[in-house]
Design a protein that fits this description.
Blueprint (H helix, E strand, L loop, with lengths): L1 H5 L1 E5 L2 E4 L5 H15 L4 H30 L5 E3 L1 H26 L5
Antiparallel strand pairs: 1-2, 1-3
Organism: Blastococcus tunisiensis
Keywords: Membrane, Transmembrane, Transmembrane helix
Protein name: SPW repeat-containing protein
Length: 112
C-alpha cells in the first residue's frame, strides 16, 4: 500500500496523475500506521491498526473512482492506475488480517 500511494492512480490521455497529489497522501499515512501496528505484540491493538488501515485503503480508492465517474463518466477518457489497484488490494488484505487478529485475540492464541 505504501508504494501504491506514490504510483499513478489515474491514467488519462494527457498523462498519469500520481496518488500523492490527492487521496494517496492519506493512504500513505495509514500505511505507516499499519507498519507500526505490525510490530505490536497485542492482537487487539494490532487488529485495530489493521482495521483502520483497511477502512482508509478501501474507502479512498472507491471514493476516487466514484468521484471521477460522476465528473467525467465511467471510464470515459480515464482508467484506474496501478497505484489505485495496489492500494485497494492492500486494503482488502489488511481487512483480512484484521479479522484474523481479532479471531486470534478472541480465542486467546499466544503471541509470537
Amino acid at each position: 500500500m505504501l508504494f501504491g500511494s506514490f504510483l499513478p492512480w489515474i491514467a488519462t490521455a494527457a498523462g498519469n496523475i500520481s496518488g500523492v497529489r490527492g487521496a494517496g497522501m492519506w493512504t500513505m499515512y495509514a500505511a505507516v500506521l499499519g507498519v507500526a501496528g505490525a510490530i505490536i505484540r497485542s492482537h487487539v491493538i494490532a487488529g485495530v491498526h489493521a482495521a483502520i488501515l483497511a477502512v482508509v485503503a478501501v474507502a479512498l480508492p472507491l471514493w476516487q473512482v466514484l468521484h471521477l465517474a460522476g465528473l467525467v463518466g465511467l471510464f470515459s477518457g480515464w482508467a484506474p492506475g496501478p497505484g489505485l489497484v495496489m492500494v485497494f488490494g492492500g486494503g482488502v488484505l489488511a481487512g483480512s488480517a484484521a479479522l484474523s487478529l481479532f479471531r486470534a485475540a478472541r480465542t486467546g492464541a499466544p503471541t509470537a
